[in-house]
Amino acid sequence: MNKRPIGIFDSGIGGLTVVKAIKRLLPREDIIYLGDTARLPYGTKSTDAIIQFSRENTNFLLSRNVKFIVIACYSSTSVALDTIQQASPVPVIGVIEPGVRRALKLTRTGRIGVIGTALTIYSGAYERAFRKFSDSCEILGRACPLFVPLVEEGWLDHPATELIARTYLESLKEDGIDTLLLGCTHYPLLLAQIKKVMGDINYVDASNEVASELAKQFAERGLENLDGNGNVAIYLTDLSMNFKEIGERFLGEPMNTFSRISLREFRLGS
Amino acid sequence: MNKRPIGIFDSGIGGLTVVKAIKRLLPREDIIYLGDTARLPYGTKSTDAIIQFSRENTNFLLSRNVKFIVIACYSSTSVALDTIQQASPVPVIGVIEPGVRRALKLTRTGRIGVIGTALTIYSGAYERAFRKFSDSCEILGRACPLFVPLVEEGWLDHPATELIARTYLESLKEDGIDTLLLGCTHYPLLLAQIKKVMGDINYVDASNEVASELAKQFAERGLENLDGNGNVAIYLTDLSMNFKEIGERFLGEPMNTFSRISLREFRLGS
Lengths: 270, 270
Prior knowledge:
The structure is a homodimer of 270-residue chains.
Chain A: E1 6-10, H1 16-25, E2 31-35, H2 47-63, E3 68-71, H3 74-87, E4 92-93, H4 96-106, E5 111-116, H5 118-123, H6 125-133, E6 138-143, H7 147-153, H8 159-174, E7 179-183, H9 191-198, E8 202-204, H10 207-221, E9 232-236, H11 243-251, E10 259-260
Parallel strand pairs in A: 1-2, 1-3, 2-9, 3-4, 5-6, 5-7, 7-8, 9-10
Helix pairs in contact in A: 1-10, 1-11, 2-3, 4-6, 8-9
């Protein structure tokens, strides 16, 4: 047993969907969540910048004595996971591999679509993750940069959202995929619009898979906390006008306590 | 005469429209441009964060020995101009007042619309700027958060862009304004779509007004550079995948030289 908290970071508050999934499956675990809201979004920044930000986020979580780190941000997982795994004294998992394993279980045709930010898609991280487990599947990626701002604007069923989804996804539809990975924390909130275009195929939101992976690794390594209180401490690097409203959309419950912190002491030179 | 460069900062590369206007009117002036691309956008962050970022940007420009500072970012001008003016040993202007003065010259009915980021609109900065010059005009604001990501995606004439413009602007149309201020560096690129909704009214893009204001102040203060080479040095805090393509849209010419810099030494505690 290990009573130290789980550390989770994301570029913003979309990663709270992962918190929600962990709370459901591992209700006794304490969680430290860090959202780098002062520098979001990550998906339009450079690889170098994301690696640097991710290291700073990791250093903050380590300073809070976490036993395990989850990178809840797909852009960060895409380009920084290896670096963070090498640098961290505690185990680190990202959000890509758990989703990839789930997609491989679900697919029948082996034609799998992935949508995400430009950084995630063009990094090739999903392609590499699939190749670890399968030589035969075909991976078709599509960057959807407007999906995050649409979710943050709350336009989950605006006609413009459907039109944009159609523009992004029509070619994936024509490609005849049978499984689609939602490779960004925000995209599950657009699932209804995405389904209108893509129809009756398999959809993979990795949040639940990440929680299952944690449960499995905790059991193997004796890291479970069986008598904790399930406290969630939320740290954000900026408190913008509507972060609470957006955060609650992801967390699925009121977000009553949060702190603004500075990462100044964790900053790296460059 | 003063041969030191003009310093300009923006959250990203949209402020290059101001560089373009200055180059046209004051072709001999050297310019140092700083785009804080690692932390963009500013319009969705908090007032505190924008003030801090703006101070760091100012300190960088001052370290380059600029003679005058232009805040080319509307969000930053909205909430940080006073702070920066008080802290800076050289004169500082923003992008709001020059546009406001122009709008007051153009309006006949005194009903004036302003569009911008949520931060700009809800800060009340335009309302306050108008009140300096006029008690009688009526100011109607509307935040348009999706316009910046649409421009960055390059969807200048996508049907979704028109639909989104219609959603944001329909109420301003009904309010019967006769002048509309484009209160964000990115919005002039959407002018064709905005005109489809708003029709034949006056439109104000402050870039040219800012250049005129500079020319006027330089003449008054003896700050002109009459035999410089018109060098423009572009510094960015991050070089993302498509910054060059987007930057050239704003600058209106090839962007051949630029440097990535860190603001680490200019960072403020908090």
